[in-house]
Amino acid sequence: VQNHCRTVAEKALALADAVEKRGIKIHRELLYRAALLHDVCRTEKKHAEAGAKFLIQHGFYRIGELIMIHMDWPEERPVQIDEAAILYLADKLVSGNQDMTLEQRFLQKTEQYAGQPETVENIRRRYRTAFAIQEMIDEVCRK
Q1: How far apart, in Å, do the first and last CA atoms of the chain sit?
Q2: Ordered DSSP codes for 26-94
Q3: Stretches in the chain below the pLDDT threshold 50
Q4: 13-50 burial string, b = 16+ CB within 10 Å, else e?
Q5: CB burial class (10 A; 0-12, 13-18, 19+) of residue 103?
Q6: pLDDT of residue 42
Q7: What is the rounded distance in angstroms from the CA atom of residue 18 to the CA atom of residue 113?
Q8: Sign (positive/negative) of CA torsion 43, 47, 51, 54?
Q9: CB within 8 Å of 22: residues ≥ 6 apart
Q10: Pick from 69, 87, 123: which is nearest to 7 by CA?
Q11: Is the Cβ–Cβ distance between 77 and 64 less than 8 Å?
């Protein structure tokens, strides 16, 4: 888990570098800390909520807010390039401590949960959100 979190943090900072070069301001320290802690409660059921609650209880509100949505993007929250979106995408671009494409990651996950249609639908929803974030970042970086 620690190696995964460090790899996600590196990926998140690389994404932040790319968008900052195009004029989008990212709170790098907040992003880095959230990435390092995003799986702090990984062994618990609903680990994103558990981790967010733990951090918020200890006074780390903004980090907790980012961790809360690193797994599932709230439907009511618009997708825009910010710390939450970068953390969300970075986590989806890393499996264990290995970089991979969204396609590779989600193929891996859908194969893993092939017999569980509800889980596969959640995986597809996450893929669509991650893909939208990646498309936004790619578009900004092409300008």
Answers
A1: 36
A2: --HHHHHHHHHHTTTTTTSTTHHHHHHHHHHHTT-HHHHHHHHTSSS--TTSPP-SSHHHHHHHHHHTE
A3: none
A4: bebbebbeeeebebeeebbbbbbbbbbbbeeeeebbbb
A5: exposed
A6: 94
A7: 33
A8: negative
A9: 140, 141, 143
A10: 87
A11: no
Token pair for 58: 């200890």
Tokens 């070069």 appear where?
21
The most distant pair of C-alpha atoms in the chain lies apart, rounded to whole Å, by 44
* Rounded distance between C-alpha atoms, residue 9 and residue 134, angstroms: 16
Q: Do residues 37 and 55 touch, judged by C-beta distance below 8 A?
A: yes
Place of tokens 């970086």: 141
The dihedral region occupied by 130, where left means phi > 0, alpha psi between -120 and 50, and beta the remainder, is alpha
Q: Is 1 helix (H, G, I), strand (E, B) or coil?
A: coil
What one-character DSSP code corresponds to residue 20?
H
Phi, psi of 94 (to 5 degrees): -130, 130
CA–CA separation, 87 vs 106, rounded Å? 17
